[in-house]
């Protein structure tokens, strides 16, 4: 797995998770949330590793939704180290309303809301992989100590969920192995990569726009009630 050492589920039977809900489908890429990251759920802010299939979490578009699949991996940093492309991203304490450091896998999509996204894709909302956030408010690539567990959540459809610090994490539904994940077909949000993602993040850096990526957790409605904004407005497409 791109240089990662992955502990087999058999190495720790307590960590085995049932994948029966979505047999034959895969979540791909270096996505996921590190154990300890808290998720807004019907039980309040709950560590992601404590969630189970069937639990309901708060989504940006569709209020409370049930988790249909969970993937768990225990990752060990190899002795040779890791290229920066594959290192988790550290969001330092206080960068985005977070009260402690947050670690994100490099390909974990994060929802951004800003005018630059509207200019780039005709919608003020876009998803950017965490690795492109390097340099914004002290976010940098790093390596968590020792072995760490990564949990990837999935739902019946693409969802964006509330995570610690008011951040919004993109959870695409699992897709068939041979499906062209990069095509974006049927996806709710545009995922920006390459020059488009760099442009968007540079705009955030220039404007020091922390609210584009994170909101005050106090503004997230009291759980288990629904979100303040049950859905996102559809912006007109200036390109036609």
Automatic annotation (TrEMBL):
Native species of this protein? Ruegeria marisflavi
Which parts of this chain are annotated as the region Disordered? 214-240
Q: Which SUPFAM superfamilies match?
A: Hedgehog/intein (Hint) domain
Query: What is the name of the protein in this document?
Result: Hint domain-containing protein
Domain named Hedgehog/Intein (Hint) is located at: 33-165
Q: Which residue windows does the record flag with biased composition (Low complexity)?
A: 221-232
């Amino acid at each position: 797995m791109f240089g990662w050492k992955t502990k087999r589920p058999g190495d720790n039977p307590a960590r085995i998770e049932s994948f029966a809900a979505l047999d034959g489908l895969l979540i791909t890429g270096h996505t996921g949330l590190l154990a300890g990251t808290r998720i807004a759920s019907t039980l309040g802010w709950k560590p992601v590793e404590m969630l189970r299939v069937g639990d309901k979490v708060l989504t940006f578009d569709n209020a409370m939704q049930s988790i249909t699949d969970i993937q768990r991996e225990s990752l060990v940093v190899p002795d040779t180290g890791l290229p920066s492309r594959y290192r988790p991203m550290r969001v330092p304490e206080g960068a985005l309303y977070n009260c402690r450091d947050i670690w994100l896998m490099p390909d974990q999509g994060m929802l951004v809301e800003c005018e630059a996204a509207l200019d780039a894709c005709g919608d003020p909302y876009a998803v950017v992989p965490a690795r492109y956030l390097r340099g914004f408010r002290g976010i940098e690539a790093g390596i968590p100590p020792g072995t760490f567990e990564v949990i990837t959540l999935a739902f019946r459809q693409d969802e964006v969920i509330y995570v610690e610090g008011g951040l919004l994490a993109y959870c695409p539904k699992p897709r068939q192995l041979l499906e062209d994940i990069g095509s974006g077909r049927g996806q709710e949000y545009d995922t920006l990569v390459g020059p488009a993602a760099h442009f968007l993040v540079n705009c955030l850096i220039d404007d020091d726009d922390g609210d584009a990526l994170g909101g005050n957790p106090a503004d997230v409605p009291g759980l288990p009630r629904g979100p303040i904004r049950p859905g996102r407005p559809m912006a007109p497409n200036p390109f036609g």
